[in-house]
Write a structure and sequence with these properties.
Layout: H1 2-14, H2 16-38, H3 40-48, H4 57-68, H5 75-119, H6 125-129, H7 132-173, H8 175-189, H9 196-222, H10 224-229, H11 233-283, H12 287-333, E1 351-357, E2 360-367, E3 374-376, E4 389-391
Antiparallel strand pairs: 1-2, 3-4
Helix pairs in contact: 2-5, 2-7, 3-4, 3-5, 3-12, 5-7, 7-8, 7-9, 7-12, 8-11, 9-11, 9-12, 11-12
């Protein structure tokens, strides 16, 4: 939970304008949504009593508002008002969703550009200390999960505002029925809270297996020529199949739990609403008021369910955020010292010689004498045509040479 609040503070601190626009849209959407709830009372009263002699207090206020604007007090007028407000609410919901997605992708751009900058300001030892699969998976999958987490945080923020506005209507009508609904919701839904410990574990397992899967795929495709040359196709496919099955098992478990929380909360919320309505029936609450309260509860339940599902996703994506943050801190720790003009120091070898065999090229020797803090090491077998130089801090010999055998003809 601490990391969730940390993400929320970071999101608002870096994107205050986005959140201001989102807040304005959410308030408009919640206002028109509340009007749809209010319109349920006169619709119910007009359907039950055509004469309009026995109506609720809400319907009386609604009739006065129609008379003030010069509109006839009829069921058709109420239907037209309800339809207009519902359409406006839907249009604002589209713009709200657009604002949430803008927050998500602006955060993704900020994260990717920032991480890329930190990595390329780090020494080459950063790449030798981290497996390529972890780096690739972090940039391809895990950073998207972090972006989704920020999107869920923005959605939760919007949902909380709507919940507060929607609760104001039933609270104004019957605070007792609202208290019964919230109490029943808390008692029946409290077991779902304990699922959060499994969400984090499954999210961490999903991230780790994703790293291994990406590493395996990278190694397999990189060594494709060697695999074909030595006839290791079946072994490579079996290895990839094993890793893929482990990752799919972790992913299925995580996403089932994340989506299952919402599916479990909705029926729990409906039961809580029925308990509250039954209590109102025993106390003799008017049918119009009960219809409006029930409609408000039915609009609240999916919003609350989506909020809890978003929170579950965030808790499952925390391992991805921790991995990204660890890589970033590691890159900052291995930051390359800069020269007088703010440019990183370059590696300038004094000598480099090559030998050619037909269309093949092999490295004969590389002289790194006098290069401060540099140490070269061979990484590839004789049949390869690449050379990796890894920069380390420490003592350097007077002359460092790398020899490569001649490639296979």
């Amino acid at each position: 939970m601490k990391i969730v609040f940390q993400l929320f503070r970071e999101l608002i601190g870096r994107f205050p304008i986005h959140f201001s626009i989102l807040l304005g849209l959410v308030l408009c959407q919640a206002f028109f949504g509340a009007l749809t709830v209010v319109a349920i009372a006169p619709i119910t009263d007009f359907l039950l009593d055509r004469t309009g002699s026995n109506v609720s207090q809400i319907t009386s206020y609604f009739s006065e508002a129609l008379t003030f604007f010069g509109l006839p007090v009829t069921l058709l007028s109420v239907f037209i008002f309800f339809a207009i407000v519902t359409v406006i609410n839907g249009i604002i919901a589209v713009f709200t969703r657009y604002a949430v997605l803008r927050v998500k992708y602006d955060v993704l751009i900020h994260l990717l550009v920032g991480i890329m900058g930190d990595i390329f300001r780090a020494r080459l030892v950063f790449f030798s200390e981290n497996r390529m699969g972890l780096l690739l998976n972090s940039f391809q999958q895990e950073v998207n999960k972090v972006g989704d987490s920020f999107g869920h945080i923005a959605s939760i923020f919007a949902n909380i505002v709507q919940v507060l506005v929607f609760l104001a209507v039933p609270l104004a009508l019957s605070s007792k029925l609202t208290a019964i609904f919230l109490g029943a919701l808390f008692i029946l839904g409290s077991p779902l809270y304990f699922l959060r410990r499994y969400t984090y574990r499954l999210g961490r397992k999903n991230t780790k297996t994703g790293n291994v899967l990406t590493e395996t795929l990278y190694q397999t495709l990189t060594a494709a020529k060697l695999i074909l040359a030595y006839g290791r196709q079946a072994l490579s496919i079996d290895r990839y199949d094993t890793v893929l099955r482990k990752h799919s098992k972790a992913a299925v478990s995580f996403h089932t739990l994340s989506t299952g929380v919402r599916e479990l909360f909705v029926p729990v919320g409906i039961v809580g609403a029925l308990v509250a309505i039954y209590a109102g029936y025993i106390e003799g609450v008017g049918l119009g008021e009960m219809a409006m309260v029930l409609f408000a509860f039915m609009k609240l339940i999916p919003i609350l369910a989506t909020t809890i599902q978003g929170k579950t996703y965030i808790e499952g994506f925390i391992p991805a955020y921790e991995q990204i943050n660890h890589l970033r801190q590691q890159a900052i720790h291995w930051a390359e010292p800069t020269g007088g003009h703010g440019q990183r120091q370059s590696l300038h070898p004094r000598g480099f010689a090559c030998r050619g065999w037909r269309r093949h090229l092999g490295v004969a020797w590389l002289d790194l004498s006098g290069v401060k803090g540099a140490q070269a090491r061979s990484w590839l077998p004789s049949s390869a045509k690449s050379l990796v130089l890894t920069s380390h801090s420490g003592a350097v010999s007077a002359t460092s040479k790398i020899g490569a055998d001649s490639p296979s003809r």
